[in-house]
Amino acid sequence: MTISDDLPRLGRSASDAPAPSGAGILHLGLGSFHRAHQAVYTAAALERDGGDWGIVGVASRSRSVVDAMHAQDLRYTVATISPNGTRLSIPGAHTDAYVAADDPQRVVRHLADDGIRVVTLTVTENGYSYAPASQRLDLDDPLVRADLAGEAPRTTIGQLARGLQLRASRGGAPVSVLSCDNLAANGSHTEKLVREFLAGLPSGEGAEALAFLDASVSFPSSMVDRIVPATTDRLRAEVSALLGAIDEVPVPAEPFTMWAIEDRFAGGRPAWEAGGAVFTDEVGRYEQLKVRLLNGTHSLIAYLGALRAAATIPDAIATGGIEAAARAVLRGEYEPSVQVPSGVDVREYERQLFERWSNSALGHRTSQVGSDGSVKLRQRIPEPALLALASGRMPHLIALTVAGYLSCIAPLPGFDAGPHAEAMTDAAQQRLAELAATARGGRDLAARVIGERQLFGEQLAAETAFVDRVGDLVDTIARHGVDAAIDECVGAAAGAARPTTETELR
Asked: Could you tell me which residues come within 8 angstroms of residue 240 by beta carbon, excluding any fewer than 6 positions away?
């Protein structure tokens, strides 16, 4: 399906959404997720109340979305896709867009602008420049060092710190920094890294800004949830045909969406509740629910699916063995580690998860979900695994998740992981592949990656029984196939299962 050359370009006239009267939000990370999530909630707030809560969107490096949005009067389409059909909407919440790499100081100046009262972030787990082992600012990162030395800041933390430093020097208005990435306690984590950056500046240069943070800056936490696959040429053509106008940057998304936010804003906020956002003091519980039950299980489905040649998550979950493994890890290994938020029915949440994963119309690719596992899994698996081990239970399905990850990203010599695994990307891939190339087998590979390199943290590295279990499963996948590993783990989990009471879940 191709886009007709006769169609006009999407523009302001295609949307009935009220234009914001100004920009009150600076958003770092102008990717698909932001445009299908925070921007949609902001558009709902503007539709209800109007005002100057427009968004200035900042892409990290790529010009493609920025250029297309400018050519379309900053408009784009969100295509909400389900088996019942596709519904189109045009949020219209953005007032400007640019690329940070083109002019890092422009980001700093915008952060110091009193008109900006909220800064939101979707820069992925990789974008926070921290050392996983210590959870502190990564002072070995050359970009961090350059930012601290006074060069135009290229890291997100450097841009935030330098922008707040300039704002402080001007006696600026209060502002809130709201992380929307999958990091535990993402608000306090972001604040800690910004403070470490400012404290690391020479000659007490950051003292004024640190005092400004104490008095005028808040870092609320939030949990975001919506499945947003990659945009394809087919989607562009379908959306353009339905619109009767060319949209170069439509965003596909599932119907489900959730945003839980700590209501702690120093300079005010939009009425995001108009779009369904939940303001709560239980954001940490919502984070656990999402990062473990959804994301952790999603990773397992992606790795097992890719190894079974399944291109999409719905293709993978349609396989009986993978669905059984997903249900086993969710109920038996992740749920016992989660404190369920008040008013949430965990069984209904589970039902919704499997409905979402089965959305064949969405076509979420296993290669997309499985990418960047070295960072994602570190947020998802250690605590549930350690809790199970501490209670005398081996988390077989979490071990299988890690074994699946290693088999996809760094397969043992002679093992063909398949095209969907090969399409996965990971910052640690080259380093892990080098370890796999000289490994004497699965146990040796797992010992090097989990034990010596501590890819998933110091505590899990010390759990030799878990490390050995991962290694044995890597060998099982390589020698007998992923189905054999699934059957073995599902059977072992069923044999070790114990009743889980509602009291324990809460």
From this structure: 3, 4, 7, 246, 247, 250
Integer Cα distance of 382 and 384 in angstroms:
6
Entry field: residues in the chain: 506
Whole-angstrom distance, CA of residue 381 vs CA of residue 375: 11
What three-state secondary structure class fits 479? helix
Nearest residue to 185 (alpha-carbon basis) of 431, 425, 383: 383
What is the band of 2 on the pLDDT scale with cuts at 50, 70, 90?
A: low
What tens digit of pLDDT does each residue of 357-377 get? 999 999 899 999 999 999 999
Number of H helices, E strands in the chain: 25, 14
Q: What is the mean pLDDT of residues 292-312?
A: 97
Structure tokens at 250: 């439509």
Q: How far apart are CA 384 and CA 184, in angstroms?
A: 13
DSSP line for 91-141: ---EEEEEEGGG-HHHHHHHHT-TT--EEEE---GGGG-EETTTTEE-TT-
- Is the whole model's pTM more than 0.70, yes or no? yes
Q: What angle do CA 120, 98, 275 make, to 5 degrees?
A: 40
Q: Which of 32, 173, 160 is nearest to 100 (CA)?
A: 160
Whole-angstrom distance, CA of residue 18 vs CA of residue 345: 36
Whether 232 has a pLDDT exceeding 60, the answer reads yes
